[in-house]
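ok new one. same drill as before - structure tokens go in, u give me an amino acid for every spot. 663 of them this time. try not to just spam alanines like last time pls lmao
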């Protein structure tokens, strides 16, 4: 059972035990179930293997909506109470926004939970169909060596650890207990089950079945090659179509998530001129809660429509580099670093509040007045740096080793195809496997795969063992510290070929090398198809978004300074008609709410959230659901983005401050 599936079922049991009173099981509930769940929903539950009913899901959705309403209500009540009693700054617009959140968020949570099985099935499809090239290549390569469909299915199911291989193992088990009438019936059922989601995969499986019945080997090889080509062509085509469909959603994301919100920031100080009073609470609710929530839902919807391609290389949990990672310790260190860096910003923010009675003090005035230290350097940048440092340190220190392990595995697999081709060619020249291994190790000298081949030959020579033990023995096998499932699986074909004949083994190795090269070329074409869009989004979140945010905040400070200067120097009552035109121009909005350091803090938090969401989006498009790559990329991108933002704010504030005397 998958971990996510188990957690969902446990949560459903919890809601059934403690919150069954939210949804009584009666006729009204049955009508509600018919309204929420379409006719094909039961098929989704069957496919997902979730041990829940429609009633359980709706009850859990009601429970989540109720708990979210309760949590947000308590949080909103405390916020309103604190602002009203201690700061006296709560207004009607803020209350309306809070009320909207209390209504909208539970409804969204309810809808997300009800749709969870459908999204979970889609998640399984994305992961499973991304395993098609690997699983199909195992089937094809084994059938080229031994034309036995059942054994090829067992080989693919045993050597692959993917989600699709898990389902193939279930099919093999059902075949053993006579659920299916033979291997052809089993493979047909497997093709029909997954053919609903990938027509190319179904066609490839049918071609595999027909290849077994070919009369001569040449026809069988051609049919098997065609089976693999159909799958790879289908994968490339669907991914290209997805890349072409991404342009409009990306423009919407760029406009609504970046350009429009950041452009509106520059207009906020002037809102007092038309009678609007915008508070920091409103800006916080809109920029730091509602907008990120919308971007999260929108990017999630796009990623769920991503077709399957190649799943990321699995990272083994038993790798030595991963044993030294103490996640709890590094999380604690990141929090401590964040607090240390944030202390100056918190200190400068608290001083005006704690020493308000000492307003005449020169130092307190310099720290608390917007024309003081904040006119040169917004002190809240320290808090933003602290948050960004904590996230970056944690991501790089914890997931950096995962990235290095994956890069090593990918590099070794890239070298492996060349090594297999050399090995196969050498064996075809009537050389012994031992001598061919030595020759290949010399030709590939300087690579990691050459070390494995040299060690294998050394074990064969010194221990007088067979190829299987030299490669796979638990104590001294050369693959004992190799963490690539693909390399281990394909070398088993080498072992089986050595048992059959050297000629068959050499031909098999050359074909395997060709298949690996073909897989790598298809993967590269898919990466190239997405590279332009990915690079644009990465440049946006690294450079353009923080640059726009910094310049906009500098303009905001300039407008606020101008309005503050007008308030101090101009008597509006003396200007006939101006008080009627700008009725609220002397509103406390100008001096109390538009504090540059507070806006820098709120927009900085929004920028951090934006970088997190866009990094997740770009990683999801390029790599799929790969947490290690996402976290590592986030750790690298966030410091650059915050650095650009900080420099733009400081230099922009310095530049625009010299324009005030000219106004």
């Amino acid at each position: 059972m998958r971990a996510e599936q188990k957690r969902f079922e446990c949560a459903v049991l919890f809601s059934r035990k403690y919150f069954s009173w939210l949804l009584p099981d009666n006729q009204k509930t049955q009508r509600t179930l018919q309204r929420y769940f379409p006719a094909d929903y039961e098929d989704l539950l069957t496919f997902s293997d979730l041990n829940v009913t429609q009633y359980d899901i709706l009850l859990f959705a009601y429970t989540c909506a109720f708990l979210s309403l309760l949590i947000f209500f308590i949080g909103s009540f405390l916020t309103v109470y604190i602002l009203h009693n201690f700061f006296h700054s709560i207004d009607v617009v803020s209350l309306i926004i809070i009320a909207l959140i209390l209504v909208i968020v539970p409804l969204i949570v309810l809808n997300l939970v009800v749709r969870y099985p459908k999204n979970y099935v889609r998640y399984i499809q994305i992961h499973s169909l991304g395993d098609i090239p690997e699983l199909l290549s195992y089937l094809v390569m084994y059938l080229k060596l031994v034309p036995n469909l059942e054994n090829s299915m067992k080989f693919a199911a045993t050597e692959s650890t993917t989600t699709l291989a898990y389902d193939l193992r279930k099919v093999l088990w059902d075949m053993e207990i006579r659920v299916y009438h033979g291997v052809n019936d089993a493979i047909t059922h497997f093709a029909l089950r997954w053919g609903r989601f990938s027509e190319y995969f179904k066609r490839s499986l049918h071609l595999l079945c027909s290849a077994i019945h070919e009369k001569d080997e040449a026809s069988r090889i051609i049919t098997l090659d065609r089976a693999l080509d159909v799958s790879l062509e289908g994968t490339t085509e669907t991914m290209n179509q997805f890349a072409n469909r991404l342009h409009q959603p990306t423009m919407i994301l760029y406009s609504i998530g970046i350009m429009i919100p950041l452009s509106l920031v520059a207009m906020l100080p002037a809102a007092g001129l038309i009678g609007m009073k915008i508070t920091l609470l409103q800006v916080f609710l809109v920029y730091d809660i509602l907008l990120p929530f919308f971007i999260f839902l929108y990017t999630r919807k796009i990623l769920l429509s991503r077709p399957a391609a190649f799943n990321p290389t699995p990272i083994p949990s038993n790798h030595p580099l991963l044993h030294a990672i103490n996640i709890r310790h590094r999380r604690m260190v990141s929090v401590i670093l964040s607090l240390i860096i944030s202390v100056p910003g918190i200190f400068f923010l608290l001083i005006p509040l704690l020493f308000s009675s000492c307003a005449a003090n020169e130092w307190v005035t310099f720290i608390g007045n917007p024309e003081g230290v904040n006119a040169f350097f917004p002190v809240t940048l320290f808090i933003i740096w602290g948050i960004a440092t904590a996230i970056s340190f944690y991501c790089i220190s914890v997931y950096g080793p995962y990235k290095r392990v994956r890069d090593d595995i990918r590099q070794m697999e890239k070298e492996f195809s060349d090594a297999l081709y050399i090995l196969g060619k050498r064996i075809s020249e009537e050389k012994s496997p031992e001598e061919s291994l030595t020759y290949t190790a010399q030709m590939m000298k300087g690579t990691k795969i050459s070390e494995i081949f040299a060690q294998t030959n050394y074990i064969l020579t010194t221990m007088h063992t067979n190829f299987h033990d030299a490669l796979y023995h638990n104590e001294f096998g050369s693959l004992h510290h190799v963490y690539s499932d693909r390399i281990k699986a394909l070398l088993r074909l080498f072992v089986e070929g050595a048992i059959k004949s050297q000629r068959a083994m050499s031909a098999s190795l050359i074909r395997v090398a060709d298949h690996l090269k073909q897989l790598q070329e298809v993967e590269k074409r898919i990466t190239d198809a997405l590279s332009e869009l990915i690079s644009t989004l990465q440049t946006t979140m690294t450079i353009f978004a923080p640059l726009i945010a910094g310049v906009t905040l500098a303009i905001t400070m300039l407008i606020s300074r101008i309005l503050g200067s007008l308030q101090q120097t101009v008597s509006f009552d003396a200007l006939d008609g101006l008080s009627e035109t700008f009725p609220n121009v002397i509103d406390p909005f100008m001096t109390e709410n538009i504090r540059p350091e507070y806006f820098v803090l709120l927009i900085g938090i929004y920028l951090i959230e934006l970088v997190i969401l866009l990094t997740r989006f770009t990683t999801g498009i390029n790599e799929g659901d790969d947490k290690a790559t996402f976290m590592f990329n986030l750790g690298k991108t966030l410091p650059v983005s915050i650095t650009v933002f900080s420099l733009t704010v400081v230099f922009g504030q310095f530049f625009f401050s010299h324009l005030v005397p000219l106004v």
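Residues 3-126 form one domain. and btw The CA atoms of residues 142 and 152 lie 6 Å apart.
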